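Protein entry
_____________
===
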Amino acid sequence: MSRSPSDILILITNDDGIHGTGLGALEEALSARWGTVVVAPDREQSAASHALTLHHPLRMVPMGAGRFAVDGTPTDCVMLSMHGLLPRRPDVVVSGINQGSNLGDDVIYSGTVAAAVEGTLLGARSMAVSLAPDTAGGFDFRQAAEVSVTVVERMLAEERMGGYLLNVNVPPGPPGSARGIRVCRLGRRIFREGIFPHTDPRGRPYYWIGGQDPTWEGEADSDFQAIEDGFISVAPLRLDWTHEEGLERIRRWELDRPGPRGGGGEPGGG
């Protein structure tokens, strides 16, 4: 893409909300190089996944120059932005910097990743950026902001990026503390004791989704292993979820032919 930086417009969003510290760090880093606009939820929308707001109207409220808050999900923010509510269509969508990693199966639930998915669906080069907390539970966003600039530069240099987005995760630490960048595949989260039932003072049951800290599994080239080893992970995620091996296997079922019936040949017989 042979265009000057001033001609590039980057849409910045997140799922931690318009006042998120990571969002501010990302905006500061990217706006130093390119034109930016921030369209983010007006409150935290963590684990919103790819939800769209369909049952009430959305409001997009100015929050200063080039900043807007939406009373909806991260996906709502990208859809509103890409469908003409901005002066021009963004070239790149960057979602983050999320307070907490989005590794492995996290991408299914993550509002941060969902915003980047929506950007890709609507034809923009897109990435999600997340930061793992330090041992005290704190976040230093500077390293994640710096790597975001680096990855956007490389994305813009690509002739095309159709059909996939980048999921970037950064280990904790100040700028320069990461050992490097690894291009990875997704690992797997292992959750235990996920539902906790309780009873309120009126005797009615309620439930918390949570439990022990999840563990993970993955090969040496997984995103979990990269973060464990102190590397920044960059995982390309495709939008086509079709399982090719399963496609061929299911075709052999010949589902267009009548199958065997039990119990005298009638459904429900026996």
Q: What stands out?
A: The radius of gyration is 22 Å. Helices lie at 21-31, 74-85, 106-109, 111-121, 142-157, 223-228, 244-251.
